[in-house]
Every structure is written in structure tokens, then in C-alpha cells.
Amino acid sequence: MSKFWSQFVYDLVPYVPGEQPKLTKLIKLNTNENPYGPSPKALAAMHAELSDNLRLYPDPNGDLLKQAVAKHYGIDASKIFLGNGSDEVLAHIFHSLFQHDLPLLFPDISYSFYPVYCGLYGIKFTLVPLDTQFQIRVADYTTPNGGIIFPNPNSPTGCVLALDAVEQILKASPDSVVVVDEAYIDFGGKTAISLADCYPNLLVTQTLSKSRSLAGLRVGLAIGHPDLIRALELVKNSFNSYPLDSLAIAGAAASFKDREYFEKTCQLVIKSRNKMVTQLEGKGFEVLPTAANFIFARHLKYDAAWLVTKLREREVIVRHFKQERIAQFLRISIGTPEQNQALIDALEEL
Ligand SMILES: *Cc1c(COP(=O)(O)O)cnc(C)c1O
């Protein structure tokens, strides 16, 4: 606290990211990173950028990456917005598209950065409870609103909404922007990008942090009608002209071009996830249906906070949320087969 602060800073409640421990031997199943590492082609492209050219500013528009994304999805580059991680993309979305008189709607259990952005930009919001099965209920999103946002698959539940349900939400609120945060879509959901042609109120966000294993590079994107993209570009160019550095543009573009590695590693994660679901159920966990690279589960006998502590003593870290409705759940990221087995072995001991 200091007399020098701008007034609003006193009231900020920032996001608390999952722990990034300095101890490298910990088995890290807490922040949904990808165990398989980035595409070797992405690494090679970044190595090639490490040159005297770094004295130059990067392309402010990241056209190389926009072209790669456009080709991957078969869309026009005018529908793509890029940012320094999808967190930054989301910040610009909240700032430029969600400041309205009516409240923003999002699920009571979802990405905990959403209320933080509302606090930063002074946006009113209404939490919409998930149903008793922890699912998004489409009918709950028909009230008048200043915008809607939800992750699909949802986080931290992992539950996915079918495309026709997403479409119903878009249809019911034609005068609001509906943002589908697809951070985990590549692990089992169907992207809503194809709906952008018919619904000018749709914005899809994606990240290279999860399915493309580039969390350290910080690249995210939004896809939607060029009118929405233009608002984001106006805000971005009033904030930071160069959110993506030269390495990020080159590495992310090469990652999108390497479809084979991407599909292979996603399949490996999905296979491990399905195995882990069966193993956890065998150990007395109730596991929510998941289409993500993590599992959300509660034990029918053991307290979640106790399990987290005991797992940590055995050098396995998982994520635990103190929020009331989900306080008995653990969120477990899918690791390598060896890491997953270490978790199962630790649970067996307990
Ligand atoms: C991980 C995650 C993000 C942020 O991704 P970055 O691109 O790393 O900033 C956004 N939304 C959800 C739901 C996430 O889980």
C-alpha cells in the first residue's frame, strides 16, 4: 500500500496461478501442462530465430502465425486475433466487448480468471450455477445479459458441451458476445469455429499452452467475426503493439504446421486419461466425465485437502480449489505414463 497508487489498485483481487515449484523432482500434475513437449519443428523454428535479427522489432500483426492458423482451420486471417497467451486475449475481450450495463454471465465453477478481469475492468457479472451433475445448462443462459463466457471443455470440471448446445446459447443471445474459451478443446471436444460464419456474436479463444505444449512461450488467439476482431486490435494497439515476440511467432506458426506431431501427442494424452479414469474409479473416486487433459475427481471416503497434503509428501502435486461446491475435488493433470503411475502408486500407499 502506498499513497502513490492509483485508486483502483487498492481493490484489485488478482488471479492465483497453480504452483510452479523450483524443485524439479516433483511430479507436477497441477497446472494442465502437456507432458510431451513442443513439436521438434517448433523448437527448430525458434532456434532459427536466434540471430542478429533479434535487434529488429517483430511483426506487430504476427502474420506468419495468422496464416498458419488460417490454413489449419480453413478460415480467413481477418478472423484471427493473437495475444501473449490466451489470458491476455481474454483481458482484451473483457475490456473491449464486455463493459455493458447488463451483467456478464459465466458458470459459478469455471476459470477463476474471469471474475478477476471483471474486477480489473469494472464489469458487472452474474454467476450461473452448474447443475447438480456439474454441467452447464443451456436454459440458464437465456436471461438478458451483457455477454456470456464459459470454457469448453469447462475447467476445472473437464466436462464438455456439445456443439448444438453451444449453438443454442448463441441463438438465445444474438445481441451479446458469446465467448467459448477452448483452452482444452483438442483433447476431446468439437471446436465452435465453424459456427463463426453464421453467428457474428461468437468469439472462440484458444491457447498453445495445453495441446501444443508451449505454455512457456505465451501464445493465445481468438477467432470470430472481423468486426469483433477489429475491437480487439484497437485495444491491443492501444496497449502493446508487439505482444508476440519473434520467437513466439516463429515457434507457434511451426507448431500449427506440424499437424502430425500435434495429433499424435493429443492422442497419447487422451489414451492416458482414459486409463487413469478407470484406475481412479477403481480406487473409490467419483470422476466427472472429462474431455480435457485433466481429471476432476472426489474420493468417497478421503478428504481432498488431506489427500493433497499426503500426495505432496510423496512428491506428487495436484490442484485443489477451496471453493465450497468443489472443495472435495482434486484436479489432476495427465502426465507421462510414468508420472500417472506414480500418482496411482502414491494413492495405493495412502
Ligand atoms: C490455461 C487456460 C487459459 C490460459 O491459457 P494461456 O494461453 O496459457 O494464458 C485460458 N482459459 C482456460 C480455461 C485455461 O485453462
Automatic annotation (TrEMBL):
Which EC number(s) does UniProt give? 2.6.1.9
Please name the GO terms that the record assigns under molecular function.
histidinol-phosphate transaminase activity
Keyword set, alphabetical order = Amino-acid biosynthesis, Aminotransferase, Histidine biosynthesis, Pyridoxal phosphate, Transferase
Keyword Mitochondrion on this protein? no
Keyword check for Transferase? yes
Q: Which reaction does it catalyse?
A: L-histidinol phosphate + 2-oxoglutarate = 3-(imidazol-4-yl)-2-oxopropyl phosphate + L-glutamate
Which SUPFAM superfamilies does the UniProt entry name for this protein? PLP-dependent transferases
Where do the Aminotransferase class I/classII large domain residues begin and end? 25-347
Q: In which pathway does it act?
A: Amino-acid biosynthesis; L-histidine biosynthesis; L-histidine from 5-phospho-alpha-D-ribose 1-diphosphate: step 7/9
Which residues in this protein are found as N6-(pyridoxal phosphate)lysine? K210
Please name the InterPro entries in this protein's record: Aminotrans_II_pyridoxalP_BS, Aminotransferase_I/II_large, HisP_aminotrans, HistidinolP_aminotransfase, PyrdxlP-dep_Trfase, PyrdxlP-dep_Trfase_major, PyrdxlP-dep_Trfase_small
Q: Which cofactors must be present for this protein to function?
A: pyridoxal 5'-phosphate
Uppermost EC category = transferase
Q: Which family does it belong to?
A: Belongs to the class-II pyridoxal-phosphate-dependent aminotransferase family. Histidinol-phosphate aminotransferase subfamily.
Assembly and interaction partners: Homodimer.
Q: Which NCBIfam families match?
A: hisC
| HAMAP family assigned | HisC_aminotrans_2
Q: What is this protein called?
A: Histidinol-phosphate aminotransferase
From what organism does this protein derive? Answer: Candidatus Pseudomonas adelgestsugas
